[in-house]
Amino acid sequence: MAVSLSTNAVKVYSPVTGQYYGECKGHSATINQIAFSGPSTPHVLHSCSSDGTIRVWDTRTFQQVSSFHSGSSQEIFSFSFGGSGNNLLAAGCGAQILFWDWRSNKQVACLEDSHVEDVTQVHFIPDHQSKLLSASVDGLMCIFDTEGDINEDDHLDSVLNVGTSIGRVGFFGETYEKLWCLTHIETLSIWDWKDASETSFQDARSLASKGWTLDDVDYFVDCHYSREAEQLWVIGGTNSGTLGYFPVSYKGNKAIGSAEAVLGGGHTGIVRTVLPMSSMPSGSSQGHGIFGWTGGEDGRLCCWLSDNAPEINRSWISSALVARSPRTRNTKRHQPY
């Protein structure tokens, strides 16, 4: 498990025991995204930064083994691997989208006319690996086909207009045809990217705030989708560090329901990232009842136990971090280490 810090370093931990392994240092500005490359090379970690680089790390030695440079010293906010041959690395760099062939480290394309402000997200679409979605501060999401020689005249498939600066996006659904989008003003929208239909929650924060008895939801951190349950949750937080998983209904009567999980007592400030154990390659079987991990501006990395967690070494659990907030009816509550 990798964690990016405000010191521009990445620290590596065990997601099961919390053991600290080491850190990767080299970036000279804010790290904007980190991701492991995949099951075939589980020790390879990538990070992109406002220093204009994407760096490749070997987490066995914590050394940089490769890097990609924007060439213009523009900030890189997001990156994604994909393409029909799985050989492309795409990055949002300023208002541009850059493409490299990661096998040769050569830049193969630069799209600079589709967005007029910073590109905050790029994602190759799961199960549609030649399709790339980009999202920007300009409020637009663009979908490109990256087959062949990539250019905007021939490869821009569609444009979705969210209307306000886009923070995070993600794909879900049986064939990943659905898309969730969180904006910088805390609105949520659900799209079918194939037919451009939209369900919008402009009042998402107030709807979520009604879904528990705690303080108002101040911000959204992420969304989480369970393929087994076919359920999407939006994860909202308070400035004091409590998180809630709020179910989103986007078919028929649209609604954001009461919190189905509350993570309280672990953080004392804004939470920036959530890593569910179910999203890790190892699954929850090795997690010994671990619900997931969260990281925040308070410098804390919190591990959360599921309600049905088996008895574990109690010395791992700090009594100072156990949730003491008022219990919400029909709410699962999780305790951090």
From TrEMBL:
PROSITE patterns hit by this protein: WD_REPEATS_2, WD_REPEATS_REGION
InterPro entries attached to this UniProt entry: WD40/YVTN_repeat-like_dom_sf, WD40_repeat_dom_sf, WD40_rpt, WDR89
Residue stretches in coiled coil: none
The entry's keywords: Repeat, WD repeat
WD repeat spans: 24-67
PANTHER family reported in the protein's UniProt record: WD REPEAT-CONTAINING PROTEIN 89
Protein name: Uncharacterized protein
